[in-house]
Structures are given as C-alpha cells and as structure tokens.
C-alpha cells in the first residue's frame, strides 16, 4: 500500500533593487524560503551565478537534503539494530556539470559520514547499514545519478 505525503514551501524573491529585472545585473538573486512553523532560510544563487555567498543556494540545499535524508534513515536503522551511534557528521560533496547552453545537472553526490559508535563490536554492522539507508532514502530514490557514500567509522 502506498501513501502520499504532501509538502508545501513558499519562495519569495527579495532581490528587487527598484527596477525589477530590467537588466541581468539590475537585480539580486536573494529570496527567502519559508515553511509554516519553521525558521526562514535566506537564499540566493551560487556566487558563480551572481549570488550572495553568505546565503544558502539551491545546490547547497539539494546536497543538504540528500545528506540529511541518508543520516535520518541511517540513525533509524542503527537504532533498530541495537547499534548506539554517539556522533554523526557528514561532509557531503556534489558535482554539478554546467552545459554549454547554461543549464546543468548534478552528476554525482558523495556522502562522507563520520560515525562514532559506542562499542567496537558495532562497527561492522554500522558500516553495512549505510547501504540500507541509501536504498531507503526518499531523496536519493528521487535523483537520476549515483549517491555514493564513503563512511569513516569510529568508536567512542
């Protein structure tokens, strides 16, 4: 049985400097991302595309979504398996290729989670559960490129 889950977010452009999009250099790429009852996120485009480097861009958020989804499934499966994770940090990387026309697409993402478990006896199973988390991640299942993972396992 499949179930649908519906999501809603509001993106509001805040980069009108007074003349709207009268010219390519006449407006900012700034915007706010808001979802009911959640903290507002200040966004922009990547600096390579005239964006503000101090704000999150769609590519950052996309990569973060893949990483967070994997982490949440991974922690879930560890909990079910009796593996005690005491720390988890991921330094995710992604490659986006821009085409000659100016469009582009991600070609791969690699997750680099550093996971600390409570006991050495948990390490092997804990490492294996990254594969299962990758299979279940909603976001990873929605993309058309490989999501790789290279975990580092530590003991508390």
TrEMBL record:
SUPFAM superfamilies from the UniProt entry: OsmC-like
Pfam families: OsmC (PF02566)
Name by which UniProt lists this protein: OsmC family peroxiredoxin
Source species of the chain: Chryseobacterium viscerum
